Amino acid sequence: KMRIAVLTSGGDSAGMNSAVRTIVKAGILKGCETYVVREGYEGLVRGNSTPAPATPAPARSTEAEHLADDAFVHNLRFGDGELLRHGEGDASDDPDGHTLKGRYIIRVGWDDVRGWLAEGGTLIGTARSAAFRTPEGRLSAALNMVKEGIDALCVCGGDGSLTGADVFRAEWSSLIKQLLEKGSITKEQFDHHQHLKIVGLVGSIDNDMSMTDLTIGALTALHRICEAIDNINSTAISHSRAFVIEVMGRHCGWLALMAGISGGADFVFIPERPPMADPWEDEMCEVIQGHRAVGKRKTIVIVAEGAHDASMKPIAVDYVKSVLSERLGLDTRVTTLGHTQRGGKPCAFDRILPMLQGVEAVDALLEATPETPSYMIGIQENKITRIPLLEAVKQTHAIAKAVEAKDYEKAMSLRDPEFAE
Ligand code: F6P
């Protein structure tokens, strides 16, 4: 049986729980043993310092019994999803010793992921692991995977997390060789773990990954921003005010741009295309004055948090506010939406997309050979796709570089080849 582990990494995004649930359920249905790694790569680095409880927690589901191998389902070590929700307790909290303390790579079954579809964030925890960025950290992660007998890893995260996955796979042979030489693993374990099977699902509210149309969580965040703009609109209209709204998106203006279009904003600042006019303040004031002149009672300016001007100076919301109040005499307020954009229930499509992609991810792992590349599971023109992880990561970095070099045309055509035609 293939042992598949799934982890979520980087900033959480709505729909990550649906991804984990799908990997677990599809994995079980396809005859695999399934594990979750708590706290992202950090959990992989830490591994399990306390043993699994001797008595398995009872499985509750009868549904699972119909769908999966009975013997397997009844043999769950952590049959109760509440354990995951309750986080770490002491062993004394549970007479059977079902505690997560000191355990990061946890065997899970059908029941553990029950009810996860509609939950926001990621119930298995996430982190931006500094340790995994070091060679020692990755060596420890490799050792923990071998110790737990994990053959395949599914990583759900953004650009940074998938870059980490790519590095891990590239180093794998050298890592397990080092472990064998140090005597940390046996020759048998070394032979069994020759190849790391790894697959990426893109979970990020920023929609900042190349070669896929949509990342898990981006649509929910967009809905959240739209609702916020709708709410602001009514109070702005009442007072005939202007609002400068800061939205997330460190390097990527997708959220800002889409929110601007769907919320009827007057002016939007995004990192990929800074205002071309010099000074941009004149252009912004002209546009807004034009809208006011035809009777608009409210003004909405959206600023992506990573937006900057043509000289790479950050566009500060308070500065935009001062321009609107001082130059146009508008009564202006600033609203920073912050983490309200990221949390909360996933919208319907952020439940469906990870489901479709999760099934594809399990298939990709089961079909992986030493010759096949590691895949990132994407969606392009409404079709679930497998894209070599290496290529997607490379292209994402090429876009960031083009933006840094102010070659916005190149950045756009890398993101969307049709743009170049
Ligand atoms: O990458 C997702 C994201 O939400 C970005 O849009 C934002 O810049 C960042 O994470 C915020 O990170 P943190 O939650 O660590 O402050």
Automatic annotation (TrEMBL):
Complete-protein stretch covered: 13 to 433 of 830
UniProt pathway: Carbohydrate degradation; glycolysis; D-glyceraldehyde 3-phosphate and glycerone phosphate from D-glucose: step 3/4
Role according to the record: Catalyzes the phosphorylation of D-fructose 6-phosphate to fructose 1,6-bisphosphate by ATP, the first committing step of glycolysis.
GO biological process: canonical glycolysis; fructose 1,6-bisphosphate metabolic process; fructose 6-phosphate metabolic process
Record: residues binding substrate: S204, I205, D206, R241, M248, G249, R250, E305, R333, H339, T340, Q341, R342
EC number(s) on file: 2.7.1.11
Source organism: Exidia glandulosa HHB12029
Positions of Mg(2+) binding: D159
Protein name: ATP-dependent 6-phosphofructokinase
Subunit details: Homotetramer.
